[in-house]
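Q: How would the structure tokens look for this protein?
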Amino acid sequence: MQDGRAQQARFSEGRQVLGGPVLGRLPDYARQRQSQLLRQRLRSLCAVVAVAVLAWAPVEWVRLERELWPTLLGLRLLLAAGLLGLAWLAPRLRPGLGLGLAFGLQALLLALMRAEVGATGSGWLPLSYALFPFVLAAQVAIFPLSLVAGVLLGLPALALVALPALTGKVALAAVALDLWLCLLILAVAVWASVAQLSLLAELLSARWQAGHDPLTGLANRAFMVPRLRAELARAERGAAPPAVVLLDLDRFKQINDQWGHETGDRVLEAVGRMLRAQRRGGDEVARWGGEEFLLLLPGTTVDEAILVAERLRRVCHGLHVEGAPDLPVRASFGVAGWRPGDTPESLIRRADQALYVAKRSGRDRVQAAVDPA
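A: Here is the predicted structure in token form.
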């Protein structure tokens, strides 16, 4: 995870660029959310189209010659089975692969059906097959995609329209109007798809800014309090209790006074990077305010939390601050463990009291909250 400024820069680029590289410029959590949405909508689309494909079979039974119907029914069953299989596999497939298979499978089997109906059918039934490429092009609008991805996804629809001319059955001029209409529908669908991706980036950017500190890129108090409340609720239900560590930089006001506020910001950024790099899996780190940082350690005893804090205290000694390599960085730590009936406020209050003792005892040390018992 990069620092807050880098995250913001990447989001700005993601909002401004609407071409294929946009996905590479979105932060990891935005790409993950986009992938989640693509998988969810792919599953829904596959299920709906599979049902629609099977629901059309009785119409063909009434309108088509009986010797033709078994072939079309077999193709419909094959298409529906393939789409339902993709719906089942969607959570395990890469979104791009799943979308390509869904659109390609529809185009292939509907082209075969159209060829069968076109050979003997008459009236509005062949026309319904001729309309399918436009429906396929419109499906692109369902998904939040980049410009290039949306265009690539619409190619099977264009290929279906141009197929009679490509196979030499008709002249290209005969399908030119249909091709132009399909291109127009695809253009609108791709525009809607890109707009969805841009809106998704905007919404996730706003959510990220609301829950994170822009200087360090760490979570902020608004994000951490609900997270801490949920962890305490789990402990009340019998889960392994958490501990918290409150870190406060020593003599930070002197750093700002002697080295300048810009150097002070670099110190905060360096500490934020260090805490992200040193945290264990499942731990949460937040900038609590000013030069204070809070660590939430789920399933951790007080003794284990003291070891974590001691390790971080030693790492601070070797911390390198850009532009001020000789600037010593020291921190004091207050540790508190869960007690039955704790609230976020009571748990953090004990950690803050322990931090106060560490400050009064000479700083650059770890102090655990005293158990009244």
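The chain has two domains: 4-211, 221-368.

Residues 4-211 form one domain.

Upvote if useful.
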